[in-house]
User: Fold this.
Amino acid sequence: MSLTYSNYLKLDQILSQQQVKSDPPEHDETLFIIIHQVYELWFKLLLHEFDKIARNFADNDLFEVMATFKRTRTVMKTLVGQLDILETMTPMSFSSFRDRLAAASGFQSAQFREFEFLLGYKRAERLADQEPGSPQYQAVERRLHEPSVVDRFYEFLAHRGATIPEELGSRDRKLPTTPHPAIQEAILHLYRSEPQVAILFELMTDFDEGQQEWRYRHVKMVERTIGNKPGTGGSSGVAFLKQSLFKAVFPDLWAIRHRL
Ligand code: HEM
Assistant:
């Protein structure tokens, strides 16, 4: 068979996967499915790009890492923008098929959890949302033990002359990123001495602001759609989601801004 647009993109498979659970079908359930599927595709791309960023940091490849941060911050803006579409669905419309979702929830998104762990927001207890033994469980578990992008960022700083404190170099990889004064001093020094690295720091800050914006927009969308009802995934819902608001991926980049 010759290569065509359709078979290259495997459209037969992709476009046959939007199957609503409501019966008779609720109009908005199609939007609900498509938007989540699209997010999962973007999550797949983000994992792909951040794996590259981790390698580029370790290799001290400044221009590659800059180019890829530019891409990821733009994807982040797209992720935020797409929430506008879902907000055209009213709470009444969502209620009409919500009970069909049973315990299914974004909570169980393995790729999102991989993404959080890869970025250094490690919450080992969230592994429990995955089915033990499944490939998804294994993927999230692998990310939990792997160095995060922030660990690779420390390597990049070392390439650029920074001394990385022993407690960061040998830290338990399963724990989340914590800010550190020595990293902040190294960042400040580079902001002042290496203008190209300063551009990278700004791109990283753009991405970081973008991912925080996504959390904020998601929680507001959840609040306007289900109020204070608990989540289908079993959490308290809005109250749970609020705990991650303003969590920075690169806290040291934020800690020094008043000194710039
Ligand atoms: C009407 C639309 C939506 C509602 C009402 C909603 C609701 C919720 C709630 C209540 C939670 C907390 C966990 C739970 O107990 O279920 C949650 C988590 C989550 N949702 Fe949504 N959500 C919606 C749309 C989306 C979309 C479009 C995405 C994109 C993939 C998404 C991704 C996530 C993720 C990744 C989490 C886990 C967040 C974390 O653990 O910090 N949600 N959602």
